[in-house]
Amino acid sequence: MTTPRTPDAPTWPREFAERYRAAGHWRGETFGGFLRERAAAHPDRVAVVDPAPERREWTYRELDERASRMAAGFAARGISPGDRVVVQLPNTAEFIEVVFALFRIGALPVYALPAHRETEIGYFCSFTEAVAYVIPDRHAGFDHLSLASKVKERTPSLRHVFVVGSPGEHTALSEVPCAPSGVAYEPQPHDLAFLQLSGGTTGVPKLIPRTHDDYIYSLRGSNEICGVDGDTRFLVLLPAAHNFPMSSPGWLGALYAGGTVVLCPSPDPATAFPLVERERVTMTGMVPPLALVWTEAGPGTEHDLSSLDLVLVGGAKYSEAAARRLEPALGCRLMQVFGMAEGLVNYTRLDDDHETVVTTQGLPISGDDEIRVVDDADEDVPEGDFGHLLTRGPYTIRGYWRAPEHNSKAFTEDGFYRTGDIVRRTPTGHLVVEGRAKDQINRGGEKVAPEEIENIILGHPSVHDVSVVGVADEYLGERTLAYVILREGAEPLKALAVKRLVRERGVAAYKIPDLVEFVDAFPQTGIGKVSKKGLRSDAAPGRTVPPQF
Ligand code: OOB
């Protein structure tokens, strides 16, 4: 046995890899392989339901055949093992077909979110030297074709743009599939399977290299904890490319168990409740602001939600008061999940008492997840005190993809990932998230790296300095506030112009500052650095209208 091959990123040392195999965590499975096995075991069971614009359902046999034909088509167009392909598709059946096709040929999907725009997509394509980019023609009123044309023009590696819908000057995805021929390449379980995006704390997002073996272990563990089996009908509410709806237990967990994945085009109750009723959905996952909206809409709904058995809530801190209201409002069980695309995922358990479920963020998936809670000097804090969460384990990466300098800060020398979260542990080992030490804003589960937005605003000639912070918000948990210091004698700027500047740079809309304030100076820390904590506490707790999903 060799250790995983991840030449572009640090990987698990041999003794850890051997331990994880010996423990039965890494079983030598691949994504392409398990789909083939499920299709052989129950070809006629429904794998995927895509309700929009017209209801489509694919059985396991159909999904498997489609993935194989798409894989053959990609290979025929020169997409090779190890090549990167940026996939930016909404919650449609094609998303699942495309990623399984890429898994089959050993090419790596790079999971972009539908909200990403020119800045992010341009970066993913150039940094990963992507050979292909897969898009819808239009989505949520946005023209993805012209964005793709712009990015293709300036990215020499990008040879193909595949489009779901009318392709314009690009290639229709529907023209790609062809009959599989010859002996296809078989990815190895320890190979990289895909690149996931980090929430990010730096000017550019980091890429997270996940292997077949490590990710499939997290699926198996999640399925066991959540009780996912062949009867599970999992509703994908959040963008399918995000780690939470993908693997906690998510659509990949549901497919691994031979269940059914129901794709939801939009997570608002008006769209999702009728789907829950019609498709007899049993399980779903959502971020806290959405859970609030569902909790408010549940009691008065005319739709039958009685099939719903379990709702997972995570991605950001879920307030205890809100957590207490969910079960009675929706008539189902609640599970809290505290996870990260880098690996570690914690769940409350089905047999936890109610208090534990509403007041903690759960236990790690694996007995081999190592947890340390430390002070600023990396010393363990006394049991029950809060501190920085460090972790290492069978499905937590040992380094980001092509980021050696950042890795030396984000990981300890002995391979623990510095999560940037402040937690404490209860006597039962359950983690409670108390806060965050990393410079990141968690806007209702959507992560914003202040530095990325600060760099854009700093580009304006009237701006002397800027600091972007998160301020408390009743619905989102946090919203973004940009403090701006103008240059002396510079043209005055309006808040709206600052927001427009960020939008026009072509970044995801959720990164545009919610608020802009002009100040003369930032609060300083003892050593003369801008005090983000000072800025956050300067801002009054906010109140917004409920978010529109
Ligand atoms: C999930 O993944 P990411 O990579 O978007 O974000 C990870 C970060 C964590 O480090 C933590 O800061 C925050 O999101 N977070 C939570 C939380 N769940 C995630 N903070 C407080 N309470 C929670 N329950 O967000 C993610 C990945 C897999 C499953 C669930 C969430």
UniProtKB/TrEMBL annotation:
<feature type="domain" description="AMP-dependent synthetase/ligase">
    <location>
        <begin position="35"/>
        <end position="401"/>
    </location>
</feature>
<comment type="pathway">
    <text>Siderophore biosynthesis.</text>
</comment>
<dbReference type="Pfam" id="PF13193">
    <property type="entry name" value="AMP-binding_C"/>
</dbReference>
<dbReference type="InterPro" id="IPR050237">
    <property type="entry name" value="ATP-dep_AMP-bd_enzyme"/>
</dbReference>
<keyword id="KW-0436">Ligase</keyword>
<feature type="domain" description="AMP-binding enzyme C-terminal">
    <location>
        <begin position="452"/>
        <end position="529"/>
    </location>
</feature>
<dbReference type="Pfam" id="PF00501">
    <property type="entry name" value="AMP-binding"/>
</dbReference>
<dbReference type="InterPro" id="IPR020845">
    <property type="entry name" value="AMP-binding_CS"/>
</dbReference>
<dbReference type="InterPro" id="IPR000873">
    <property type="entry name" value="AMP-dep_synth/lig_dom"/>
</dbReference>
<dbReference type="InterPro" id="IPR011963">
    <property type="entry name" value="DHB_AMP_lig"/>
</dbReference>
<dbReference type="InterPro" id="IPR025110">
    <property type="entry name" value="AMP-bd_C"/>
</dbReference>
<dbReference type="InterPro" id="IPR045851">
    <property type="entry name" value="AMP-bd_C_sf"/>
</dbReference>
<protein>
    <submittedName>
        <fullName>(2,3-dihydroxybenzoyl)adenylate synthase</fullName>
    </submittedName>
</protein>
